[in-house]
Amino acid sequence: xxxxxKKNLISMVLLFVVSSGxxxxxxxxxxxxxxxxxxxxxxxxxxxxxxxxxxxxxxVRTKNVLGTIMHSFAAMGIISILxxxxxxxxxxxxxxxxxxFGWNPDYFFxxxxxxxxxxxGVPEYVFSMFQGKFAIITPALIAGAFAERVSFKxxxxxxxxxxxxxxxxxxxxxxxxxxxxFNLGAAxxxxxxxxxxxxxxxxxxxxxxxxxxGARRGYPYQVIRPxxxxxxxxxxxxxxxxWFGFNAGSSISSxxxxxxxxTATQVAAAAGAMTWMIIEGMHQGKxxxxxFASGILAGLVAVTPAAGVVQPYGAMILGVLxxxxxxMAIMLKNKLGYDDSLDAFGIHGVGGxxxxxxxxxFIRPSWMNNAAEAFGSDWTVWxxxxxxxxxxxxxxVYAAVMTLAIIFVVDKIFKFKSSEIDEMAGLDxxxxxxxxxxxxxxx
Length: 443
Prior knowledge:
The chain is mainly α. The chain has a single domain, classed as Ammonium transporter fold (Orthogonal Bundle), CATH 1.10.3430. The protein has helices at residues 6-14, 32-59, 65-92, 124-142, 152-175, 195-213, 229-248, 256-284, 289-303, 312-336, 344-358, 365-375, 381-414, 420-425, 427-432; strands at 95-96, 101-102. Helix 4 (124-142) crosses helix 5 (152-175), helix 5 packs antiparallel against helix 6 and helix 6 packs parallel to helix 13. It starts with 5 loop residues before the first helix and ends in an 11-residue tail after the last helix.
């Protein structure tokens, strides 16, 4: 193994990040168990994209179901190509331009990793493809905030630019060994699988986009009902399954840390779902299928940054807290009147914030003991709380400012929001010339 600083070595042991970015020599043997799990995790995270497409697709009106599903599938194509070309290099290459993002010429189109094996015994190709799935789903999440009212052409340009200038730099700051959030404080910001990088950035960006673009025509006076809650529930189920790869795969191993993250993921989702169902039953007198699905996602989002450092009881508490706060956030949205169509900010943004900050109160004792031994008095729960709060603030501010700038430019060139005629006709018909449900009336 290459010589590492004490800090980076301890960081790997404590699972502060998914990878230190330091790779072994080409003679490093492949760990077939870890590689098999990482291949499986990569497929599971990719499964989340059609799961998200189904979840979002069922929540919109019939005339927009195919167009909404295309928002997720388009990201699979566009971001995959950009990730191979420049994304992996910008995220895991050495810092340039004052640390704004990374760059390694060997990572350009992955041309220099053909025979590279990481210290974990996993081919670097597998790691790069696993991380690429995170880059895909993040901009796809944003689409839920402005569903049913945007031009497909403008959306395609937006996610391409957003992925390059928002996602890649944030991921570099948090997960690269020389990223400034990775090295913040004594132990660095804890974001095991993407609470800040994925969910906070997507949720905040969605909120900015929803406010900038304005509401759907007729909102909130016109009743806008989901077209197919069965589709939404199936999508939620696929997301739950795929999240095991999302979180447990972020251990980049196949061992104890993998089992810990997988268990935390399961119980947080269950606790979130049950909490939402109870709150809804008490508040509205009925427990809805949509509410149950929303609780699943709230719990999963909250445990994402914490899955590698909390025990099951802590994961359950995070799920409960996330459901409560996300439920209140959605109620507040209804009072404020902004049109976050599918609650991208209310679930992902708010849930990510809850998980990233509150995880410090549920860190497992062995993790804290190792941190105290490694960093002495420089590390305490309260110091880590400050680090987490600062990391969350950085993610919020950067995502908000950059998203506003990107949307402004894209809107001026391509006209982001649909015309009244296109919106009334529906995304399916206006931008794809198809109907999601055959000969059914698209209205």
